[in-house]
Design brief:
single chain, about 190 residues, alpha+beta, minor pseudopilin epsh fold, 5-stranded antiparallel β-sheet, 10 strands, about 25% helix
């Protein structure tokens, strides 16, 4: 005797898919996740712009020191405090020959293109041998022995109230990084009395 098979009747009037309530909950969760991601991203982008500006400037400073040592010639880095940009100036003229001080005009000296700081990042100041500059062109030197002009560069993002400092050591030309604002005490004449 054959066993009877149970066949379920089809439910043609039952619909499959999501209800409006289920779709609403999924959309609400997706909206909350995208809001959290965008808030986190907005908080990270400003800090990343400052960090990127610091890294790019440090690379130019290292390159100026390296070129100076390897080519046995003085290189310079110039900071434009008003336009918030910088460039490297070489000992060569625009035609590739050595630039001769006192003979060749300064405009004939080869310099790299101006590199702007990232949007929202500014030069606060450059302290060169104890003197603070904040609204002019400042030129620092790297010599063939690896030493450099003693200077401190303060970068900031005024909108987010964050700052970073690069300190170029005079004897070695190496760079120290300081989060926030850093100021070194310079000796005065009174220190030697």
């Amino acid at each position: 005797m054959a066993s009877p098979l149970k066949v379920r009747p089809s439910r043609s009037n039952q619909q499959s898919g999501f209800t409006i309530l289920e779709l609403g909950i999924v959309l609400l969760i997706m909206g909350m996740v995208s809001l959290a991601v965008s808030v986190s991203f907005d908080a990270l982008v400003p800090r990343e712009r400052l960090n990127t500006s610091v890294r790019e400037l440090a690379d130019v400073l290292r390159r100026a020191r390296s070129e100076s040592v390897s080519r046995n010639a003085e290189y310079f880095v110039e900071y434009d405090m008003v336009e918030h940009r910088y460039r490297m100036i070489t000992p060569l003229s625009v035609d590739g020959l050595p630039w001769i001080e006192g003979v060749d005009h300064e405009d004939l000296r080869y310099a790299t293109n101006w590199e702007p700081l990232r949007p929202g990042v500014e030069f606060d100041s450059v302290t060169l041998a104890g003197t603070i500059y904040s609204e002019e062109l400042v030129r620092v030197r790297f010599d063939p022995l690896g030493s450099a002009s003693d200077h401190i560069i303060q970068l900031s993002q005024p909108r987010y109230e964050v700052a970073f400092t690069l300190e170029v050591l005079p004897l070695t030309g190496l760079i120290r990084f300081h989060e926030g604002i850093y100021a070194r005490d310079y000796p005065t004449d009174l220190d030697f009395n």
